[in-house]
Amino acid sequence: MKAFVFFGLLAVASASWLPEFQSDSSVSTAKKQQDVLRLLFKVTEPIRKRYSELKDASVNFHPDADLTKYTDGGAAVKALLTEVEDGRTLEQKHYFSLFNDRHREEALMLFEVLIDSKDWATAVANAAYFREKLNEGVFVYALYTAVIHAPIGKDLVLPPLYEVTPHLFANTEVIHKAYSAKMTQTPGKFKMSFTGTKKNPEQRVAYFGEDIGLNVHHVSWHMDYPFWWKDSYGYHLDRKGELFFWAHHQLTVRFDAERLSNNLDLVDELYWDRPIVEGFAPHTTYKYGGEFPARPDNVNFEDVDGVARIRDMIIIETRIRDAIAHGYVTAADGSKIDIRNEHGIDVLGDVIESSVYSPNAGYYGALHNLAHIILGRQGDPHGKFNMPPGVMEHFETATRDPSFFRLHKYMDNIFKEHKDSLPPYTKEEVEFPDVAITAVGVEGKLETFFEDFEFNLLMGVDDTEEVEDVPISAIVSRLNHDPFTMTADISNNNAADVFATIRIFICPRYDANGILFTLNEGRWNCVEIDKFWRTLTPGSNHITRKSKDTSTTVPDVPSFQSLLEQADAAVSSGSALDLSAYSRGCGIPDRLLLPKGNTEGMEFAVIVAVTDGSKDAAVEGLEKDERGGSHAQCGIHGETFPDKRPLGYPLDRRILDERALLNFPNLHKGIITISHRD
């Protein structure tokens, strides 16, 4: 059998002739923000002449002139320069896919050059230089991940990808209209519809999988926790495997909640030996490379030439399930790693993805990553028609395809098999002595609605610097909800203050046939909407939490144009630029906090758990500073995950006695109703 090792990395670095850039100590956040935005402005075209510093660097900078400017002595930059000079790099005006080994290798070469740069001037000069020589997709991916992970990128806000690379988010019809508007110099706003028709039941939930904010969350999560990450880049990605499970589990159960609200069954898992029931026509076009491939209904899986055979995927799955059954994973050196404990899910997540952290990728393969490629290629598995990669081969576009959720339900069930192998939580693991929840409530109405959202398409069309831009934008319908506040009355009967972790879940009460879920059946369908910390004083405590403050969500990042205007103004005036509210791209959009209700009102169980924060918290000061605000699914950059408990606790394990669990005074179960207004 062929062994699958999905990742492969190289090194790179940077250096001298630094035009008029300031020394790093004097570079303001506003100037850094301005540089990043100018580098990303119309990346398929040369750097604008009006951006003179960057333009000069792209022509006159010599990256290897001063190798002392790099933490690795210039190894990375010399390697990348050799690739460029020998003509081995991916051509410009060509599609880029992270799942392509060579494409990814080039992106990581540039990533390493940027993170090995000792100061901002060196990093930005390298970015300008290689921007003009490398593929546009390679450049964008490397710059985004470097800004996210490099210390010199701290506090910078990356613009929304749907405005930087709009072809991956807007449908073909809208892009064509944008080109027409540009050519005729006629401003335009174009309504963007979701794929499919009412003949396709999946169209009812297309608003979720095709939500551009959700798409950005998905790709941002994979940039925050990339499968290719090595700790030599600067730090360890704490609980990366477990977060891989949890972030995708939450996407899957949230999709199920949307399906129930639209009178659809829970999504069924994918089977390698059965047809892919739902076809998909993306109606999306690469900027360079043609249309995204379509897939008809009821396609049987075929081997993908040069990638994987279906029988090998079944063997990989069997090996993983055997590891769960035995309670251990076999490492590459033959040792056994115990997974029959609360940390086993982290090992299993690394194995299933598979990331560089996998203890034995040669044996356990790369189930998740290869499955994405296989699904993306089913329209042309043997390369007969030379089709470009499918939507499943890009994290930006993957959730558009209904098979994405079937694939992750399949993997989710493997994770559940592991979780069900663990013993239920004991009394000591759940209780919080002398602390009780006396009431849980909601201030405001839990009501969802659709709204129009406008985003810029200027960077989706070609032009020249000599031709004035005209306003061109797309308008898309998206789900939102009215603001609300969760409240909880908690009594602390201890003589002193106690530190508490408060977790809030909402769970669909009924299946598609109107049958009530038991708590043990329904716990795996629960959506975690918040987790936060509070100090409880002796006696009664009234806790409030606004929907906009939840630790699972992030606000909309301002438009590219707005960010650039703010940065330019701050640089011109010498004033400070504070964009800290948008420092994380990873996180569910705050308007998607609630699943869509229905006009009659859809019932959900609300489960609130208050547990001992002195035992739970892994980071100090969480009550006052939640470190970016979306830690529940995205952790804290470069730090320990803030919660020591397993993700999903206390609903992640089997519940043998529902009444016994709910008899704990620090747990509360109630019923809420989410309505939807047309």
Walkthrough of the structure:
- By secondary structure, this protein is α+β, with helices and mostly antiparallel strands.
- It has 3 domains: 128 residues, Hemocyanin, N-terminal domain (Up-down Bundle), CATH 1.20.1370.10; 221 residues, Orthogonal Bundle (di-copper center containing domain from catechol oxidase), CATH 1.10.1280; 199 residues, Immunoglobulin-like (Sandwich).
- It contains 22 helices and 14 strands.
- The chain has a 7-stranded mixed sheet. The chain has a 3-stranded antiparallel sheet with strand order 4-7-10, with no helix packed on it.
- The longest helix has 22 residues.
- Keywords: Signal.
- This is Hemocyanin HC2.
- Pfam families: Hemocyanin_C, Hemocyanin_M, Hemocyanin_N.
What are the key terms here?
678 residues, alpha+beta, Hemocyanin, N-terminal domain, di-copper center containing domain from catechol oxidase, Immunoglobulin-like, three-stranded antiparallel sheet, 14 strands
Strand order of the largest sheet: 1-6-5-14-13-8-9
Instruction: Give the biggest beta sheet.
Output: 7 strands, mixed
Tell me the domain tally: 3
- Average pLDDT rating: 94
Number of strands: 14
Give the CATH architecture of the largest domain. Answer: Orthogonal Bundle
Q: What are the low-pLDDT stretches, counting only 5+ consecutive residues below 50?
A: 1-17
User: Going by CATH, what is the homologous superfamily of the largest domain?
Assistant: Di-copper center containing domain from catechol oxidase
Strand % is: 15-25%
Coarse shape = globular
CATH C-level class of the largest domain: Mainly Alpha
The CATH topology assignment of the largest domain is di-copper center containing domain from catechol oxidase
Number of helices: 22
- In which range does the helix fraction lie? 25-40%
Q: Evaluate the radius of gyration.
A: 25 Å
Question: Which secondary-structure class do the elements indicate?
Answer: alpha+beta
Taking the alpha carbons of the first and last residues, their distance comes to 54 Å
Organism: Limnoria quadripunctata (Gribble)
Family: Belongs to the tyrosinase family. Hemocyanin subfamily.
Protein name: Hemocyanin HC2
GO molecular function: oxidoreductase activity
